[in-house]
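User: Predict the complex.
Assistant: Input components as received:
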Amino acid sequence: MSTQNGKITNVLLVGVGGQGVLLASDILADVAMEAGFDAKKSEVHGMAQRGGVVSSHLRFGKKVWSPIIPEGQADVMMAFEQAEALRAMHLLRDGGVPIVNQYSIIPPIAGGGKFQYPESPLAGVLQRFPNLITIDAFKECRLLGNEKMVSVLFLGALSSQLEFSEDLWNSVIMKRVPKGTEEGNWKAFKRGRELASA
Amino acid sequence: MEASSKDNKQRFMLSGNEAVAMGCREAGVHLGSGYPGTPSTEILETIAKMVPEMYVQWSPNEKVGLEVAAGAAFSGARTICTQKHVGLNVAADPFMTLSYIGVKGGMIVISADDPELHSSQNEQDNRHYARFGKVPMVEPSDSQESKDMIASALDISEEFDTPVLFRMTTRISHGKSIVEPGEIQSHEITGFKKDAPKFVMVPAHARKRHVVVEERMVKLQEFSETTPLNFIEWSDKKIGVISSGAAYSPAREVLPDASFLKLGFTYPLPLKKIREFADQVDRLLVVEELDPFIEDQLKAVGIACEGKNATTLLGEMTPGRLATGLVKIGVLDSAPAVSDPTDVLPRPPVLCSGCPHRSIYVELKKRRGFVFGDIGCYTLGALPPLSSLDCCLDMGASISTAIGSSKVSDGAKPIYAIIGDSTFLHSGITGVLDAVYNKANINVLIVDNRITAMTGGQQHPATGMTLMGEPAKAVNIVDLVRALGVEDIQHLKNNDQENVRRGFERAEAYEGVSVLIAQSPCMLMPRKLKGTPYFIDPAICIGCRRCLQIGCPSLSLTGEFTAKERQQVVIDPATCTGCSVCAQVCPQEAIHSTEVSE
């Protein structure tokens, strides 16, 4: 994504409460700030931890006014859950990049018969965005030995779409992740970056 | 707060609430009090963690919180009190007369409003409280201003001898932006000095204080004209915009070439400055969220302007909504094209896996009575599939609304009130007192999960711990209820459906006030609890989906079908806490603990 000419870069992060969406957007916000940009982040807490939808808007550039990404202007969407990618994709601009976790969290409401979980959410995203990047973050993290690194692995994937240096990502991630998990998280970051660049 | 340095200047990425905490530190605030409420909660929590030199406390409700801060301000300390918008309704009584008394040390009343109702029962616009109470108001537009305006507001409070209303909204409180810290000041606490005509609000004194209030309004009006909190940014003069708070940044984004009069001090309005600004622009727009608070005041003094002809009275101001509105009145030629959202099944918040409230609602649903609810996690019992809450008005209203209904009902259906521990202590106690005194025939369920859960796990007077982490005396809710005169008190065992059912039957048979107390800790706070998970035997499950009716997020359809073409259900062992409620409702006894089977 280009950050030249005073353009604002808009990254949308979506998922379900408890998936680590807010940690990922906190890290990204710090990276943007450390890189010398103005940055704003907006999200709604409140009901998030009760299995509701979580979305976080992160904007950076020379000067950012509104903390909310205008509809249809997100450059990248990181979706931690497939159906949430479908729900939020109208916020992506034409040619924007969706990065989607191959993972479903089916809400209890789908058991009632009135609402159906989408049959193939990824196909729905792919139809509008042929440049879709999918990652099986849980599987990858399990292979790396820790399922709690999904946020950071996902940030690695996102990093392939942004212009920040690996050193900068490294310095922020080392400060943000729990003590003792630095090495594992950095491996997860590199793996995510590799998968998205492939 | 993780610091960053650029050009040797420290910079922090902070939420508005965290920035207020930093502002309190820099401005030498001594005391903060309040009651948790989204989106205000993190202000006092951040201070408790990051500003050890300050004293902060949770009060049982906002009225007490405001009075505690007022008492400290009367004693010469710098103070804040925090609440969400509806919390200020609870604290409105002291707020209105505090305006008459004024302060001694500076005092800020923070109201965190929730346009869009992200987590509230209404979206009232608390700017009206400034006008109603004749109290000056400031409104930050980002985190830097949230920090800086704390010191400004305290200076105003002390200079004009008045509390200051500090109005934030969800996007300001929870949004994050970059903050550069400032110098730390210190202030002496001067102590309480007797001055009855000022501090004792009996009619003879209050009449004179009202004169002081009106004189103060005139002085504040003059201050509003000159304060740097209100400033003009000249650009193209075809469009002039007046804006404040969370509406300002979308306005700047959507109208990059317009001239702006940015208001940080929004009551009383700088009418002279506004008139001068209006005279120099072709078209004057007021961009504000919710009510036409500014627009109405301008029109009342004959300043022509537009605003609510373009923007809605509902919800938040976003760049997209604003652009659409401006197209409508011809200020913009076109708004960016927006594609329609895809129709995806809703994902409403649910009671957590293993939540102790679930077993209560599963039984309540069967009773077919009327259930008067309250504000807290248990409000989630209103949503399908539990669908067993019939009314929710405001904090503490469950018991009182149940009393009212019982007084005019024929008694054919049982009447229940359901209230949590923190809410009971907030304003449910008086409801029980009323029920006993006025001989109501109601069943009061106190679902005590030992924490203020909905707002993220805050301590309260029955948890045995203060906001600052000190051990405290924990009020015994059972003793308290008994002391209020309740004779029929039962303990319910959460997650034991037979016990819960028997308890409800006994309460319904009892003529008078029954109180049923279910005490079991929240599964998430203060620490995450996890028991041995259950599993569903696919050989026995007939796919009746009875278990899905308890609304547990650990249960889902497998995609596998039974012999009779019905989808089977599976339990996620990673999230199942082993509460067993699903096993108790299963008609086939297909659900068992993994512990037993292995």
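The mean pLDDT of chain A is 90.
Let me know if you want any component modeled separately.
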